[in-house]
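Write out the bound-state structure for cytidine-5'-triphosphate.
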Amino acid sequence: MKKVITYGTFDLFHEGHYNLLKRAKELGDYLIVGVTTEHYDLQRGKLNVIDPLLKRIDNVKNSGLADEIIIEDHEGQKQEDIQKMGVSIFVEGSDWVGIFDYLKEYCEVVYLERTPDISSSILRASQYPILQLGIIGTGRIAPRFLAEAKYVSGINARAVYNPHEISARKFGEKYELEYFFGDFEEFLQHVDVVYIASPHQTHYEYARRCLERGRHVLCEKPLTFTVKEAEELYVLAEAKKTILMEGIKTAYCPGFMQMMNIAKNGTIGEIKDVEACFSRITNPRLREMVDEEYGGAFLEFGSYTLLPIFKLLGCHYESVEFTGISARNGIDLYSKIHFRFKNALALSKTGIGVKSEGQLVIAGTKGYILAESPWWLTKSFVVRFEDPAKVEQYSPKFLGDGLRYEIADFVSRINGNEKNSYFLTKEESIAMAGVVERFMESRKEKVFCWGNM
Ligand code: CTP
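---
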């Protein structure tokens, strides 16, 4: 029997896919079709796939052409499948000419002419009009966001707003945006979705105003300074049928979710302790060093360190305690937050004037996971056990600086792919606002000792 194999995403299954499968089948007696997982697509930089895996498999099945459907979830799998399954011919469309020639070592490689004028990308663009994005704020993160948004299809950065129109103009001109505004209402009229990258204390007010006007919101961390405000925003988003997402980029990185899943699947036993640290020695002139009210290490990096704690141990801690070292102007140069959960402990450490080992350690009853800096991008992590010889090493693929995954999830949720993102749940986001609220109170109570700056 002559086996033929082909692979694809098969998103929004179309005539081009059908034609390719039909001709592939005619080349042999038995057709195997590999359908990519979401995770693999994310890793290889194919963002914004609309149909979930099961639907894409069903569509291939319903074509009546596949004798067997398999799932493709990692690089190097094609060679494995071809050898394992005794495949004679590997087929792909002509957009891939040359790319898979390395498989000629194992079987015949055939590139079939693509069906003209149809593709998943064309269908996505026609079914889901391009979202027009506006950015609020022109600080350090905004240009990075713009650069990463270019890798996500279905969204176009169009306008920028800054209450100081001159700053908006400078930014708009530099990054070649269509519009810049110093007037908020005018700005909103020109955009469908908003990215809030303004100073921390302005997030709530901007988010509320955007949601009230029916705009989808992706808001930089911290979303708000109180639980009440965070809850209010999520209720408002639901009432207005809009998406509200907190932009903690780590949550959306493919490797981070993989690490969380491995931690929770019993590999290291029951999780008993999570220690997360993020520190960066910061230029004394920067906002986080000089803003007496809203500067400091915790407000800058705390969302990253709280994320694995809440993901792994849940949002209901029994107690929380803050300590730290502050500068003369009152901001925290270094903060330690101790949590006690029913059956576990956790520690968040953040620093902007103290440097420490920026690592994440997840300790369990059978072993532990260690992710070294920059664990918040999760490019690698190891699982270790009592037996030092037993080590599992993971190196998830990672592209760009992380923001593109967050932007892709934002777009796919707006397009109705997922109403409740599990990458960062509403509950987790509200729980973080709760810690921010208590942190601000504890600062007033002066629980921090003085530093020397
Ligand atoms: N294909 C084809 N003719 C088309 C579109 C796709 O022959 N008009 C082939 C591809 O070359 C590939 C297979 O169908 O061998 C699966 O392709 P996939 O990447 O899933 O579909 P595209 O429509 O190319 O998706 P996208 O626009 O996201 O790249």
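---
The mean pLDDT is 94.
The chain has three domains: 3-112, 131-248, 251-399+425-452.
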